[in-house]
């Protein structure tokens, strides 16, 4: 099951990188919640599924391009911890590289929860608490 969960997360990231919000949201459960309370940007808070699109449009609308590259996956039951690198390019050619992490919870093939972490070790600790 964990391998299938990682594939769900990979599909979400692929859809995101293609700019296909509809395909990305297809992987989320109707009760999906994204915890970005640890964010160091304006995209801070806890968002329900109906709020995710507007929050992402607001945040990523600031950038000409955003791309996510996965660095590591750790699969643990329902949880998939992901370390990734975000590449942001601004309209004035300014480029930014950030390395956050996230823990995704998948049930019955659908993402029910996502939580953003600034540090990989914090994401791993979160996964360990759920095991």
Task: Outline the structure in words.
The chain is of the alpha+beta class and 131 residues long. It has one domain: Nuclear Transport Factor 2, Chain: A (Roll). Helices cover 34% and strands 40% of the residues. It contains 4 helices and 7 strands. The chain has helices at 2-17, 21-25, 49-60, 120-130, and strands spanning 28-35, 46-48, 65-76, 79-89, 95-98, 101-107, 110-117. Strands 1, 2, 3, 4, 5, 6 and 7 form a 7-stranded mixed sheet that branches. β4 and β5 form a beta hairpin. It is globular.
Offer a concise description of the structure:
This protein has 131 residues and is an alpha+beta fold. Helices cover 34% and strands 40% of the residues.
Order of helices and strands: HHEEHEEEEEH
Regarding CATH, which class? Alpha Beta
Give the DSSP E fraction (strand runs of 2 or more residues): 35-45%
**How many beta-strand segments?**
7
Unreliable segments (pLDDT under 50, ≥5 consecutive)? none
Do you know the CATH architecture? Answer: Roll
- What separation lies between the terminal Cα atoms? 15 Å
CATH topology (level 3) name:
Nuclear Transport Factor 2, Chain: A
* Helix-and-strand structural type: alpha+beta
Total number of helices: 4
Largest sheet: 7 strands, mixed
**Into which percent range does the helicity of residues fall?**
25-40%
Mean pLDDT: 89
Q: How many distinct folded domains? A: 1
Gyration radius over CA: 14 Å
Silhouette: globular
